[in-house]
Amino acid sequence: MARQAGINLENVKIRNKSTVLKLLNRKGAMSRKDIAKEVGLTPATVTVLCTEMIEEGILQEKGEMQEERRAGRRKILVDIAYGCKCVVAVSIESKKTYISACDLKGNLISGKIIKTDTSIAPIEFLKIIEKECKVLLWENEIEQRSVLGMGICIPGIVDRNRGISIRAYGIWKEEVRIKEIMQEAMSCPVIVENNIKAFAEGELLYGAGRTGDNLLFVKWGPGVGSAIVTQNQIYEGKDHRAAEIGHYIIEPNGELCHCGRRGCLETKVSTEAIIKRIRSIYSKEHTPRLYENTGGDIELISESNFTEWAESGNELDMSDEEVVKILHKSIERLARTIVNMMTILAPDSTILFGFMLENEEIRKIFMEYCQQYDSTYTEEYIQKSELSRKIYYIGATAIVTRQYFFEPKDS
């Protein structure tokens, strides 16, 4: 009985520490007294908790609070020591894989990009990732004991509980036991998650999700992905599926999608689909400016070149009317689908990210189409993510940090 009571008290302390950490992550450095007011604990309890976490290297004192001088004890600010641990973040995309080392705030320490090699067996490619991760840690003098864990994000259907990629669209067709393979190789905890759901978790921890309970996330580029947050929790559908807006059917009996169905939104608005349609009209007569810029070489009308153009933020070339029509058609289709989804979900806000929506002109046209359907859909309601520039590591960092640092771990 006494042992059980001791365990229960320890669990209460763990949960209280978690509450303090979440508060500091949300609001920044605070005094112990102000923390106590916010979380509903006594100042004495908070002082004990903070002292223990400072000794553990989890918290650090940040100096005296700047306020009017008053009689009594000075307010010393405490904050999370975000550099106390490191997260290895891996994002496997169809063309490239991004390997990063980040602190607990989601700041990049160092990173590298390798080609996603789908021509070899998944286990062989995971061995390449393992090697690159270990080299990255070694180059940055990060010791194994400083690694909190490894987060791996991948498109498609993921069983997070078992750490299995069930079907990684455009990468692997078979199930891959990523967690089992990488946990043994890296000697640290590993979490595997769908890339869009992981990014949404990043927003919950570091971005818009700190103030909104019900959110819709939409990514465009190279494909289309989405995630739904309800009551500050990421929605997961049947068989571990995310809210796959990219596979919303918009054309009955349409083109075959890589998901196995026909007429999905991605078959019309993915960068691959856009390039395919531009190439179909490419000629000196129909696309004179594009033809001149590429020297008549259709091979330069590629997905990689299109991606580079979108990421550069360049304006649309208005001289080729047919090319502009194709882009407008894709933007309108995406906007219409999202407006319909928002009508059903009625989120607090919708968060946009992905390199297509990073392009200011594309985002402007997208918003114009949204407002044609509903004039209340302003940029305050449909927002660009503040974490877009961290897209390839923030999600993987967040899933590890949230589970192993901010969430309680009862005995």
UniProtKB/TrEMBL annotation:
Short name of one Pfam family: ROK
PANTHER family: BIFUNCTIONAL UDP-N-ACETYLGLUCOSAMINE 2-EPIMERASE_N-ACETYLMANNOSAMINE KINASE (PTHR18964:SF149), ROK (REPRESSOR, ORF, KINASE) FAMILY (PTHR18964)
N-terminal signal peptide: none
Family matches, as InterPro entries: ROK
Originating species: Faecalicatena faecalis
Name of the protein in its database record: ROK family transcriptional regulator
Similarity comment: family membership: Belongs to the ROK (NagC/XylR) family.
